[in-house]
Amino acid sequence: MPDVAISAPNEAAADAGEQIALAGGNAIDSAIATTLVTMVNEVGIVSLSSGGFITVQPPDGSAPHTVDGWMDMPGRDRALGGGTWDIYTDYGGGVTVTIGAGSVACHGSVAAFGEAHQRWGSVPWRELVAPAIEVARGGFQLGTASRFYLDYVHDDIFGWDDQSHAAVHHDDGTISTGLVNLPDLVGALELIAEEGPSALHTGDLARLISDDVIDRGGILGPADLAAYRPIVRPSLMSTVGEWQLGTNPPPSVGGVCVAAMLRLLEDHPSADVDHLVRVQRAVLGHRLDTLDHSEDLERDAAAFLELIDRDHLAVLESGSTAHVSATDSDGGACAITVSSGYSSGMIAKGTGIWLNNCLGEQELNAKGLHGLAPGTRLLSNMAPTVGHHPDGSSIAIGSPGADRITTAIVQVLAGFINGGLGLQDAVNHPRVHVHRAGRPDEDVKIETTPSMYYGGVGVTLRKPDGRLVAAADPRRDGAVRLVHGRDGV
């Protein structure tokens, strides 16, 4: 029974990780259980209809791997187009998003959890789902992140579907301050506990989801759900100081940006804001100009990283998510980032599950709505990252925050590894973000007071002597647990 450190988006989620650790679970088990609870109570941020990535550092120090459970383009047996409309929101600095049934992509995060659990987990699957069932059964209040987001979109996105509107509103149309209750979600989770992740891809639960999407003009059909498979890849590696860091590889673009920025920031103090802005402008601008439109992202990402390694100067002159981190005393580390986009606004009838709108996240669909071939993975900003140090230390880190994900992670790692800051101090440190890098309306945003706009980093660390540290971001309702597996908390 290893000791486990957990960094979670909220207290109930952290309680779930603690419960699993006390039952003998390792970092991977605890992270999965924690994330499943966020899929219940982080309304508007993430749901079971989500995609995500899990990066795992095995305790033996071997190379990390990333399980890709990100969104697939649906439409294998349906005509593309229809079932959507656009809304504009000031959330995240101002963005136009596409919602409705036609914006629903093929989910994959829970399937990825199943793959990771089979490879590295130790506690029975049913036990991992149990805390989420209890949170759904008892009802829950909206947290700070949910309320902040809903303040912008509660009517435009969450108001058009009757079930969705009733779940998060009082009768007078204001955002709910009481318990959110979704009885159908309890039944959906019980099916997932009993049947495993396949319940979301085949069988009655999958049928309820696809039937409702199709009935409302969408394109997510049963063939799309049944064909979905998580993919396990070697993580994208970078060396920072003596740390070997593994992050999300292509076809995600987020991990490439993290690796690039870390390499460009090496040997620079974290307080060098001018250099940090140059790095963000170069990397995020290259993403906008090249990576987002690449026909071969693995090739173009490798070429970009090779150029950085060869000549830093040449490079410098030229979007809603939830994250959980966990490490254990055996040296294992697990970073999970998941997202449902901005939400399609609809709850699939009979399931209690808010469906994603990842086809409608315009920054992730450079080729336009329904512009990819069915079965193709969408782009992603996500960059769950783990690391191993020769002295036996291990780390897990990640963040929500759309295009601020990469800049938040990099600044915390730079502060911790290069800047000599303690883990919590590195998380707390003010951040910088180059918004719309490379565009005419580019804006350098410098944080003067803590704001969830700049992400919500969660990070856990195993020290060389086996002691554990966890840090959560004060910009969101973060919560941490340090669990002694043999002796209690």
Automatic annotation (TrEMBL):
Top-rank lineage group of the source organism: Bacteria
The keyword Transferase is annotated on this UniProt entry: yes
Annotated keywords: Acyltransferase, Hydrolase, Transferase, Zymogen
Molecular function GO terms recorded: glutathione hydrolase activity; leukotriene C4 gamma-glutamyl transferase activity
Any Pfam family matching the protein: G_glu_transpept
EC annotation from Swiss-Prot or TrEMBL: 2.3.2.2, 3.4.19.13
Keyword set includes Membrane: no
Family per similarity comment: Belongs to the gamma-glutamyltransferase family.
Name of the protein in its database record: Gamma-glutamyltranspeptidase/glutathione hydrolase
